[in-house]
């Protein structure tokens, strides 16, 4: 099968500079207003979230929960540093790029994703930080998010299997065996497109409504297997950081599930949240809290403790970094003056 065609980077006529400048300023102000408005609504206007945030501050400033909360807070830059490292491994395949610029791109993408449906702004934030091959970068961003999804699905299916086999399918060994086989097939089906992306592109060609996305993902087969191994390993490490943060916050609020079932509940919560589309980052809160309180409820953990830990995890990892990303959004260069001719990919 011949290699897929990458993007054509012949430049099109651009609107006048003054018009572009006002469009960019207006867009930045709109993003800033939406982000600040959603942050206010999520942290202060909603009573449950505001109570969890006050309890988080009280725990971090004194009491038995101070150590775990501060440890979870210290892991926030580690979390997004790993995401920046992952994006650096993907972006340097397209053009020479520094880790610092990748970290900035991740924060910009987080802020833009905060106010857009299903976090599609994350694509724009990262792409606008590149100087060339911006359309091919769509495939790179998708590849990074897909690797994170693989880690979530592999761990999450194991977690949900524990609850289904323990609480719902006891006494039904045949159904349990069928569920295990289905989970294994699901994991294989999720991992296969990562290393056989040409099959994914072929499938997009066959399915007419998805055919238009093929050209954006054509860069995926150009990544060598060693680069995919590295990106997937970083994704799994970042997933472990998320789980550790959730566990620390549960500890801070007084929840004490057994380690194994507790990890299964955390993994199941993350999987359910990832599979449900959302209007924006704020909408993720309800999905995560509903699934977390249900799964931990099966372990006889009080809902208020689980709810507080889950809301605090969202505040630490999404709300605060999104506010920090506003500083970079306001300085973002949307239009590049440099030539957008494609450069030869660097070694992945």
The SSE string, one letter per element, is HHHHHHHHHHHH
What is the typical, i.e. mean, pLDDT? 81
Number of alpha- plus pi-helical segments: 12
Q: How would the global form be characterised?
A: globular
Gyration radius over CA: 22 Å
Beta content comes to: under 5%
What is the domain tally?
Answer: 1
Task: List its traits.
single chain, 348 residues, mainly alpha, 71% helix, disordered C terminus, transmembrane, Flippase-like domain-containing protein, L-PG_synthase/AglD, transmembrane helix, membrane
In summary, what is this structure?
By secondary structure, this protein is mainly alpha-helical. Helix content is 71%, strand content 0%. The chain contains twelve helices and no strands.
Description:
The chain is an all-alpha fold and 348 residues long. It has one domain (17-329). 71% of the residues lie in helices and 0% in strands. It has helices at 17-45, 47-61, 66-91, 99-114, 121-127, 137-168, 173-195, 197-206, 225-252, 259-275, 281-298, 303-329. α1 packs across α2 (47-61) and α3 (66-91) packs across α4 (99-114). The longest helix is centred in the middle third of the chain and has 32 residues, at 137-168.
SSE map:
Elements: H1 17-45, H2 47-61, H3 66-91, H4 99-114, H5 121-127, H6 137-168, H7 173-195, H8 197-206, H9 225-252, H10 259-275, H11 281-298, H12 303-329
Helix pairs in contact: 1-2, 1-12, 2-3, 2-12, 3-4, 3-6, 3-9, 3-12, 4-5, 4-12, 5-6, 6-7, 6-9, 6-10, 7-8, 9-12, 10-11, 11-12
């Amino acid at each position: 099968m011949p290699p897929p065609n990458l993007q054509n980077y012949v430049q099109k006529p651009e609107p006048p500079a003054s018009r572009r400048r006002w469009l960019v300023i207006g867009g930045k102000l709109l993003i800033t207003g939406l982000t600040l408005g959603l942050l206010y609504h999520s942290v202060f206007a909603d009573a449950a979230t505001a109570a969890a945030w006050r309890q988080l501050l009280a725990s971090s400033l004194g009491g038995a929960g101070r150590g775990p909360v501060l440890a979870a807070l210290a892991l926030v830059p580690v979390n997004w540093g790993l995401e920046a490292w992952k994006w650096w491994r993907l972006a340097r395949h397209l053009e020479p790029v520094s880790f610092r610029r990748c970290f900035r791109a991740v924060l910009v993408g987080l802020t833009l994703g905060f106010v857009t449906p299903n976090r599609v702004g994350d694509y724009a934030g990262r792409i606008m930080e590149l100087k060339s091959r911006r359309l091919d970068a769509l495939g790179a961003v998708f590849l990074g998010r897909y690797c994170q999804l693989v880690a979530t699905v592999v761990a999450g299916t194991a977690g949900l299997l524990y609850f289904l086999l323990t609480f719902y399918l006891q006494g039904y060994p045949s159904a349990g065996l069928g569920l295990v086989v289905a989970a294994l097939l699901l994991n294989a089906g999720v991992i296969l497109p990562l290393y056989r992306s040409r099959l994914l592109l072929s499938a997009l060609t066959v399915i007419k409504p998805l055919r238009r996305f093929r050209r954006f993902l054509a860069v995926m087969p150009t990544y060598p297997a060693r680069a995919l191994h590295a990106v997937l390993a970083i994704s799994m490490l970042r997933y472990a950081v998320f789980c550790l943060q959730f566990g620390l916050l549960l500890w801070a609020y007084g929840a004490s599930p057994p380690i194994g079932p507790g990890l299964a509940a955390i993994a199941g919560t993350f999987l359910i949240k990832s599979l449900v589309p959302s209007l924006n980052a704020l909408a993720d809160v309800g999905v995560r809290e509903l699934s977390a309180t249900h799964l931990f409820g099966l372990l006889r953990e009080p809902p208020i403790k689980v709810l507080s830990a889950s809301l605090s995890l969202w505040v630490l990892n999404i709300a605060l970094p999104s506010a920090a990303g506003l500083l970079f959004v306001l300085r973002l260069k949307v239009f590049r003056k440099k030539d957008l001719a494609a450069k030869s990919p660097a070694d992945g």
